Amino acid sequence: MQMQNVVEVIGPRGGLILRAADGSYVLAQQIDAKPLKVKQVLHGALDAFGMESATDPDTGDTYDFFVEAYGLSREAALGA
Prior knowledge:
By secondary structure, the chain is mostly beta strands. It has one domain (about 5-80). Helices cover about 10% and strands about 50% of the residues. It contains one helix and six strands. It has one helix at about 75-80; strands spanning about 5-10, 15-20, 25-30, 40-45, 50-55, 60-70. It has a six-stranded antiparallel β-barrel with strand order 1-2-3-6-5-4. The longest helix has 6 residues, at about 75-80.
């Protein structure tokens, strides 16, 4: 299911924490080398483990991720 995700934290070596539209958090690794920014909005289905993609609705750029965990609380995502 496509949903809005907002980049919350960009960590070293491509690690990301994204906030999903339902308020939960996604822990992912960015697979491509396209630059992302904190607070950037991405639309995509990041609610399954494994390879997923999301698109920036403003630019049309697509980003590839490996989703490690989803449905997390903020505390769980930051502590991972």
